[in-house]
Amino acid sequence: MAKSEQTAIEVGGHEIKVTNLDKVMYPETGTTKGDVIDYYRQVAPWFVAHASRRPATRKRWVNGVGTADEPRDAFFHKNLDPASTPDWVATVSLEHRHRASTYPLVDDEATLIWLAQLASLEIHVPQWKVGPRGGHQNPDRMILDLDPGEGAGIAECIEVAHLCKELLDGMKLTSVPVTSGSKGIHLYAGLDGKHTAAQVTEVAKALAEALEKEHPDLVVSNMRKDVRGGRVLIDWSENNGNKTAVAPYSLRGRDHPYVAVPREWNELTASLEQLTPPQVLQRLASIGDPMQVLLDKDERVSRTAKDRLTKYRSMRDQAKTPEPVPEASPVAGEGKSFVIQEHHASRLHYDFRLERDGVLVSWAVPKGPPDDPKDNHLAVMTEDHPLEYGSFEGTIPQGQYGGGEVKIWDAGTYECEKWRDDKEVIAVLHGRPDGGLGGEPVKFAIVHTKMGGDDKNWLMHRMELEPADSQATTGTSDSTTDQKLPRFEAMLASVGSDDDLGTRDWVFETKWDGYRAIAEVTGGQASLRSRNGKDFTRTYPELAELGSLLDGHTAVLDGEIVALDEDGRSNFGSLQNHGAGGSKAHYMVFDLLYLDGESLLRTPYSERRKALEALTLDGEYIHVPVTLGSDAEAALKVSKDLKLEGVIAKTIDGVYQQGKRAGTWLKIKNQRMQEVIVVGWKPGAGSRANTIGSLLLAVNGDDGLTYVGRVGTGFNAKQLAEIKKRLERLERKTPALDDVPRADAKDAKWVRPSEVGEVTFGEWTATDRLRHPAWRGWRPDKNPQDVVREDG
């Protein structure tokens, strides 16, 4: 979504003015208001299915949620201001004890986006709907809010959830668990609408009291906080007709942007985690909505509701065409690539494609893009295409849809000036230096005219460029020194094993043991930065060699900064002591993201690799390591024999998904490692009497920091002195978390949870502690908020 002070977007035929899209709503993760609106746009079909016809109360954080240390208060809104409410928003007026209030009904996507624009991060609804004449209907669902008291947690909530399910099953009520995005779990049970809210409340209360009687050490039904310690409250009162609960698929106003997410019952295990918007959208695309069983059939949203490639797949047989036919549903992103393909089908035409929300929105242009503003050309909208199609060239067999030769006429990136779904698109295209557009920025408008009464017909118009358009960032310039490079974020690998490889074609690379870094080269100068934005350029001056090796090129590369031992293996400990004893850093380059004005993000891995190798980057400190081949068994054996950290498996046809952890890259480790946040330290004894005995460690869990144990091995004397000096500057009086065992907390010195380290370990214990951890070193390239448990 474009970021500006104010812009207008069209949703469901309604124009909504959105403002301050760059405002950070969740400082801990950098999630912006634009990100919030993007999430609600994509999740709208499922959100509306569960929230429609229910009066919505809103919790607004107009200045963001703040941080864990300094949270900001929300404004709780019930009554709408008629003067500022669009006339297309459905509303209902409800009488309360002292006054009437007007509530919005989230009956469509436009209303949901309008509320998101008002910074309504959380939306709460009752368990009943408004009838045709505006009155209360009987509840169509019952809710049990499982809220852990102090000393209890998600594990206890899961146990209580299963106990509730047994009773609900006995009542022949279908139930669905929802991780609340906060501390507990909500259980929803479908009802037939024959009982009043008061009657449903009594049933819920009786259920809670029955479980409390059977399991007094685990369950409590009394709302008093002083009796809830170590137990889970089954809050039955939210079935009251005057109460609400956070709506399924609503964001939560916590320090992290977690979501209230319906789950499958088999997901309620010890590894259960709260989910973020990207995770929610991915699971909706892959498994659908677990809560749809509580909806009428005509209310249910198909898993493919947002799978915009359904039509594309239906028109192609993967066994008969070389075109990419991905099985996975597209995941929306913010990419802005374009491609124009010369297509010699039954009639020559040009396919014009713009990346939007995870697909290539496509038009067939019989006469090609107009080269004169005086001319307008017909553009016929076709089915959305997968992003992989952006690099496709080849011959589609005759008899197949679109049979004929396809060649890339031009490709690159575009700037979106306007995108009104089903109405108009205006974009400035920045193509290849030798592309069909002539290597200069070109501005096109595509307008939905429905010429001849055909809804597929649009009109393509070439627009005059304004001076600002021709000086845009991704075009070429007279001097490579002055060229501004696009900003790329590193693609991340998912934790996996050889069992996850399946039948896809993979290439295996060495998993290097160092600091991940994106390198930018322009005008013969190189700069390097970590995933969290830390500038490594001056830290490792020897890596300036990259600039001279690529002099004459502009490029963005991905790689790992490492220190090498005498056998050529990466040594993380040596990297920690860079500069001591003459040790030098090396940059292992394994991907090429951008070269001489052309983005390679949508180019398959195999082609990016060829382009990288063609640069012949072989310097004293800069290297392009050879791969370990495509044989999984052989690659893993070599990795273990050479005592490497592990391998990275990459699909040969995978595109580069910047900023995302994707299943097309898998990291398969030879030993288990875990990033950790240091939250305190315990003084040593004996030979360590004046220094550190052990470090107290945590990771981010469902409800903030979670203690995972302490580490007391893996240090040398020099490291202990450095660590103590570093931590003494971060001291605080109280711990940043509340689940440290008394024995570990005794005599501990507490510190701000701002430093990330890494340990090796044997396994996770039954109590979620690290067994036999050993210190590896600091991770200045990592942010504390990104540290979570890795179960691979």
From TrEMBL:
Biological processes annotated in GO: DNA recombination; DNA repair
Bilayer-crossing regions: none
Broad class of enzyme this protein falls into: ligase
Segment forming the signal sequence: none
Known EC number: 6.5.1.1
Catalytic reactions of this protein: ATP + (deoxyribonucleotide)n-3'-hydroxyl + 5'-phospho-(deoxyribonucleotide)m = (deoxyribonucleotide)n+m + AMP + diphosphate
Keyword field contains DNA damage: yes
Gene Ontology molecular functions: ATP binding; DNA binding; DNA ligase (ATP) activity; DNA-directed DNA polymerase activity; exonuclease activity; metal ion binding
Keyword terms: ATP-binding, DNA damage, DNA recombination, DNA repair, DNA-binding, DNA-directed DNA polymerase, Exonuclease, Hydrolase, Ligase, Manganese, Metal-binding, Multifunctional enzyme, Nuclease, Nucleotide-binding, Nucleotidyltransferase, Transferase
Residue intervals of the ATP-dependent DNA ligase family profile domain: 583-701
Gene3D superfamilies: 3.30.1490.70, DNA ligase/mRNA capping enzyme (3.30.470.30), DNA primase, PRIM domain (3.90.920.10), Nucleic acid-binding proteins (2.40.50.140)
Family statement: In the N-terminal section; belongs to the LigD polymerase family. In the C-terminal section; belongs to the ATP-dependent DNA ligase family.
NCBIfam families from the UniProt entry: LigD_PE_dom, ligD_pol, NHEJ_ligase_lig, PRK09632.1
Protein name per UniProt: DNA ligase (ATP)
Organism, scientific name: Yimella lutea
